[in-house]
Amino acid sequence: MPTLAEKKAVVENLVEEINESDGIYVTDYTGMSVAEMNELRSQFTEKGITFKISRNTLFRRALDEVDGEGFDDLKEHMVEQNAVAFISGDPSLPAKILKNRQKGKQEKPAFKVAVIDGVIYESDQLDNLAAMKSKEEVIGDIVGLLLSPASNVVSALQSQGSNLAGAIKTIADKEEDS
């Protein structure tokens, strides 16, 4: 049984991780073997995601100490055996990992809820989370859209210029022939 000081240290660590993360995913790992958990943890770690098993009471206490939207709603989901993924960067990575596991007929862990930028995503929204683009992809799309009109204008001017130059040359050639 952990001492009170150890519990306080765990809560402080959780508060720090929550504050430093861009989002949190909560999963139910009931029925998973140690080998399956280790495999899942390594998949998350490869993508730079911290994945931890947390005692529900300690996690709720950590949520009480955190300022931010969505965290109060998260408390009601802290039942059963939960593992928490703390994300920094691309908010869709944990969802993609969980979806890939489901495609491979691995139903565990079950996605319960996520909080990203103060917005709660329930278990039925895993597909939406997995389909989200990363910030880099969105920025790339925006840059592409911004550059597209400029390149269209340049190509239109070049084609009109070449057509105009061709027309002038044809007229000049006709006048020389006459």
What does this structure look like?
With 178 residues, the chain is an alpha+beta fold. The chain has a 5-stranded antiparallel beta sheet. It starts with a helix and ends with a helix. The protein folds into 2 domains: 4-132, 2-Layer Sandwich (Alpha-Beta Plaits), CATH 3.30.70.1730; 133-178. 58% of the residues lie in helices and 15% in strands.
Produce a short descriptive summary.
The chain has 178 residues and is of the alpha+beta class.
Keyphrases for this structure?
single chain, 178 residues, alpha+beta, Alpha-Beta Plaits, 2 domains, 7 helices
Q: Architecture of the largest domain, according to CATH?
A: 2-Layer Sandwich
| Biggest pleated-sheet summary | 5 strands, antiparallel
CATH class term of the largest domain:
Alpha Beta
Structural class: alpha+beta
Write out the CATH superfamily name of the largest domain: Ribosomal protein L10, N-terminal RNA-binding domain
Counting DSSP H or I runs of 4 or more residues, the number of helices is 7
Q: What's the alpha carbon Rg, rounded to whole Å?
A: 27 Å
Q: Give the strand order, joined by hyphens, for the main sheet.
A: 2-3-1-4-5
| Amount of helix | 55-70%
Order of SSEs, N→C?
HEHEHHEHEEHH
CATH topology name of the largest domain, in short, is Alpha-Beta Plaits
Q: What is the 3D form? A: elongated
Gap between N and C termini, in Å?
A: 107 Å
| Total number of domains | 2
Number of strands: 5
Average pLDDT reading: 83
Strand content: 15-25%
Outline the low-pLDDT stretches: none
